[in-house]
Write a structure and sequence with these properties.
Layout: H1 10-14, H2 24-31, H3 35-38, H4 41-72, H5 78-87, H6 91-106, H7 109-116, H8 122-132, H9 137-147, H10 156-170, H11 172-184, E1 187-192, E2 198-203, H12 207-224, H13 233-247, E3 260-261, H14 264-267, E4 275-277, E5 281-283, H15 285-292, E6 302-304, E7 311-314, H16 323-331, E8 347-351, E9 363-367, H17 369-375, E10 381-384, E11 390-393, E12 399-402, E13 415-418
Antiparallel strand pairs: 1-2, 3-4, 4-5, 6-7, 8-9, 10-11, 11-12, 12-13
Length: 422
């Protein structure tokens, strides 16, 4: 590893006389802070985006300096202590940043270049370094190249999922071993806090069991949320979970469901393509097959369009098939760009179809409760194109689009941003 990777325009970036290279809107506000009050909404959005890009560029430069310090200290832990003191952060946080700096310089140069371009910030870059830390050098280079066009414009959860999927695809055997090792480390932890409360958590639990347990707690909490119930859903979930642990009477024991999306070839063991657990993201093929092998597992055949991978038909098994069930299987998650809440926890809302004749039926789309409310606020416009793409227009006129998720391996749900015409 070397910290001498070329820094794009390093000398100009350090020359404070080159303020003219900053975006116009940033220079305007720096020259006259009162400019901000005179800006239109879309100009404020541009300022937010442009300053974020400049922050990402500076973070890339800072990471090179941190990596260089680590080399000078011969990778000793003391380097993290120096960074912690310099930045007034905890040593745990500093250690994570030092590790990320070394990984980006030595293993993920394309991700670092995205930071140089202002297209990836440190927080999202660390999602990639965390998800690929276990990969060999050869495998991580493959992932670095695969992610170059996938992570810009995606939020931290989407970046983590994309990196996890790419890592598992690059080294499926390693991904399965990593899952086994994590399961060995499962534990229950209790952390007492200063205000008479505590944090209780189960770490490294099997993902399918943890998801099913949360679904049961959530279901019971929602059943208790009557108009006369003053507690919030979060408070009810916490109370139900504690009650279940202490007395097993926290709620009904109805069957809970988790939804796993896996292609036929992976199910048959013909390939090692990662599967997807709704609301959680990619999981190793071996783990997916283990979940499917459970005694209570119900398989549903989903027919997909061979060109796009979009679901077009859901076959019934022991349940009666209804349209809402198909919509949730088709959408997989809330259709708001960037939202990853499982469709099984979402409501279904009719959304205007673009170009449809007056009186034509709207398309039904899954939305979580938060984004269902956003859908009805002034200034927000939602429409669905005939091919299923949903366009969300913000109050500043910017259009964010999301395509339906694909059931085919290697394809992904994409989010796009189109700036309004001036």
């Amino acid at each position: 590893m070397t910290s001498s990777q070329p820094i794009r325009n390093l000398v100009p970036a350090l020359d404070q006389s080159t303020d003219g290279e900053l975006p116009f809107v940033v220079r305007s506000v720096r020259a006259d802070p009162d400019t901000l009050q005179r800006m239109k909404d879309d100009q404020v959005i541009d300022l937010i985006r442009d300053t974020d890009a400049e922050i990402s560029k500076l973070q890339a430069l800072q990471l090179r300096a941190i990596a260089d310090l680590s080399v000078r200290r011969r990778r000793a832990p003391s380097a993290s202590s120096e960074v912690a003191l310099a930045l007034s952060i905890t040593e745990h946080r500093a250690s994570s940043i030092v590790s990320a700096a070394n990984a980006l310089i030595g293993r993920l140069p394309r991700m670092l270049n995205l930071m140089d371009d202002g297209r990836l910030d440190l927080y999202r870059a660390m999602k990639v370094t965390d998800a690929t830390a276990w990969l060999s050098g050869d495998h991580v280079r493959v992932v670095d190249e695969a992610l170059e066009d996938r992570v810009p414009g995606r939020n931290a959860t989407q970046v983590r999922r994309a990196a996890t999927y790419a890592a598992a695809q690059a080294d499926p055997e390693g991904a399965a071993l990593r899952t086994e090792r994590k399961l060995i480390e499962r534990r229950l932890t209790l952390h007492h806090q200063d205000t008479g409360v505590a944090h209780l958590s189960v770490n490294n639990a099997p993902t399918e069991k943890a998801t099913a347990a949360y679904a049961r707690v959530d279901q019971a909490a929602r059943a208790l949320k009557t108009p006369d119930e003053p507690r919030t859903l979060d408070q009810l979930r916490a109370d139900v979970a504690i009650d279940l642990l202490l007395s097993a009477t926290g709620g009904p024991g109805e069957r809970t469901e988790v939804f796993l999306h896996i292609d036929l070839a992976t199910y048959l063991g013909l390939n090692q393509t990662p599967a997807a657990l709704a609301g959680r993201g990619p999981i190793a093929a071996a783990l997916a097959r283990h979940i499917i092998g459970g005694s209570d597992t119900t398989l549903r055949r989903v027919l997909t369009d061979p060109r796009t991978g979009h679901a077009v038909e859901l076959s019934p098994t022991r349940y009666s098939l209804d349209q809402d069930e198909f919509i949730r299987v088709r959408d997989q998650e809330c259709r708001q760009p960037g939202c990853t809440r499982p469709a099984q926890s979402c409501g279904i809302k009719a959304t205007r179809t673009k170009g449809a004749a007056e009186g034509a039926a709207d398309q039904a789309i899954t939305f979580c409760s938060r984004h269902s409310k956003l859908n009805g606020l002034p200034g927000w416009d939602y429409e669905v194109t005939p091919d299923g793409t949903m366009n969300v227009t913000t109050p500043t006129g910017q259009v964010h689009s999301t395509t339906p998720p694909s059931m085919h391996p290697g394809r992904r749900r994409t989010n796009r941003l189109r700036k309004p015409r001036r």
